[in-house]
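Why does this matter for the project? Reviewers at the last site visit asked to see concrete outputs rather than summary tables. In response, this paragraph embeds two records directly. Each consists of the residue sequence and, immediately after it, the corresponding structure tokens. Nothing has been edited or filtered.
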Amino acid sequence: MSTDTNPAAPALTRLAERYGISSHFENAYGSTIAVSAETMSLLLSSMGVNVTSQTEAQDALDRLERHDVRDPLPATVVVVPKNNWCLIQVNDRNLPSPLDWRVELESGEELSGHFHWQEGNYYGSDGNVGLTIENLPLGYHRLHLPQMNAATHLLVCPEQCWLPDKVEGGYWGIAVQLYLMRSATNWGIGDFSDLKALVEVAGEHGCGLIGLNPLHQMFLDNPEAASPYSPATRLCLNPLYIDVLAVPEWPASPAAQALVNAPAFKAQLEECRASSLVNYSGVTELKLAALRLIYQSFSGVAPPDRHAAFAAFCRQKGDSLERASLFQVLRQHYARTDVQADWRRWPAELQTAGSQAQREFAEDYRTEIDFQNWLQFIADEQLETAAKAAREQGMAVGLYRDLAVGCDASGAETWANPAAFLQRNLVGAPPDIFSPAGQ
């Protein structure tokens, strides 16, 4: 039971619950652990609620309840259909009848209808009305109540996780840290061609899935910040996984071939291959130098269908790709100056995504931003080639990609959407059997 409904709970605990902060958790041994008052106070402070005592917490709670006008719908609603009906609580009993509703489906289609409420309709524990809608497909949708000027993200979920058809009898898989794979052809870090080769070999022996470390985009100006769990953004891929020689434009780039075949380049490449640890700085320098020359060939001699495919990729990825690429270029620009690469140290006009200063910067550095976009295009192509190989091998699942829970505080995600993050907080997992110090 939420402590928000328990008037005997301390005021600080009830205030924290109102702001979505849990007052306790169950550890790996099944014991209930109380969250300290200090932690709750610090989290509240990061949300602009500064309380240092139970008296101040009670005053803040009283003010909140006096001025609490809850929206008819929360920001997000998660529902599981029951007998093909979805039940959605509305935070208001004074509803018009009929109540009009409209749902924008993730497919782009729309559903609409009217709901007549009356005594006997479902009410929640707090007396709210339950709006029922039939035949909503699974997915991420948008619910609108036009008469109440209210809307919410509507997530319609299945009752259980998806299972592949071939799960009967079980199957086995391999967990791989892609960056640790070595082959005769890679450049000292595993790449997508290595992944494809592994898929083909493992698939022939009945492997059902390949589990991968997060493949997220990192910081090209600081390659040694290489933890896949602290990425710049989870919306893009790490271009270091590109197999340079597998890029379609490689054969049409004499400049890139001359570079890669030069004695000094070969010597540096052999050093990266011989290193017992991944030489992130060395690999980054080599790959970006070669890929930059290949991109120049792509821009000049690639056939129209390749340019069309690249343009379609950029359109599909939209603003998220453009901003991630702009971020990388800004990072590299400021890494070469006295200003730190951390965006929180940039000039104020460049800290706000979409600002006029950013647009002007993007115009000046358009070629470099397009190069970053192209790196994502190539990485996406090569990862899809490996995924296609898994499908052709008949793997039950295929590629299973890990997702980092968070991102680097100085990365593209926090820069592009700072309002979605509490900048002064770091949140980890509590201690468990395998990680006594937490994560």
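We now turn to the second protein, recorded in exactly the same manner.
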Amino acid sequence: MSDQQKIKEIADRYKQDWTVDQYSRITGLTAELAGTSRALAIKILIRADIQMLQELGIDFEADRYSNFGTGAVAWASKVKEDPERTCESVENPEFEIPDTLISSNASATSEDSADIPRYHEPSKDMLIGPYQLVEKIGDGGMGTVWKAQQRYPLEREVALKVIRSGMADRGTIARFNLERQAIALMKHDNIAKILDAGETENGDPFFVMELVDGIPFDRYCDQKNLSISDRLKLMIPICRAVQHAHQKSIIHRDLKHSNILITEIDGKPVPKIIDFGLAKAIERQILSEASVHTEFGKIIGTLEYMSPEQA
């Protein structure tokens, strides 16, 4: 696949799963690219981000993109004035990518390049403990989700979520740890179960869940041509699972079609709630104190599915 094709695929994935807080997501999505292609991809994603913000009437400053360098801020200012602006040439000094955002497959430019923090994207066949990565099945702001094969002491297929190496600040790590601890508290048939947790050789936290071989709630209903009555019946176990989480003092905060997968067991549909990456603990003693508070001024979640008090 050419870089241009990759950029198009990246842009499509970005638009399909857009949320307000996108810094790490933009960085992660473009990590596999290098040089000019990566700068172009970042430009395209910044433009898409601005268009979405303006469509939703959300006020923002170009400094929102300061993580990507002064060139990105200048580009964002231009796009803010003209959202349909085409991507200009990126082969200019005003849009250099900061060294800390250069991907691990970018070519070295000096003897000091080894000291630059790199993004280490997990790859197919990589071993993380007893788990061999088989296929990437999810990509979010905090980490990537892989279909993996557990090799010992049991042989089985699992889902493994690992935080983005070299890109996690203390807040991100705290939220990632909240997610795996929150899932560990759940004991409900309609919530994906956690099986294991640990750290990679680089010290990056990961956790392992049951692999849910399913499709998003809305697509399943459409494919099966379910009636309104059948769709409501399918919502009952989902509501019970949400209630179970609330009884554990955990609020999911990002419930949407793509986070409710429907699998079939013995020919019957079984919903599974996944992705507690934005979960909030409402009792301080349940999880660490760092996980209880949302940073002031940040919107957490997907606007189209937020409750009024969350938005």
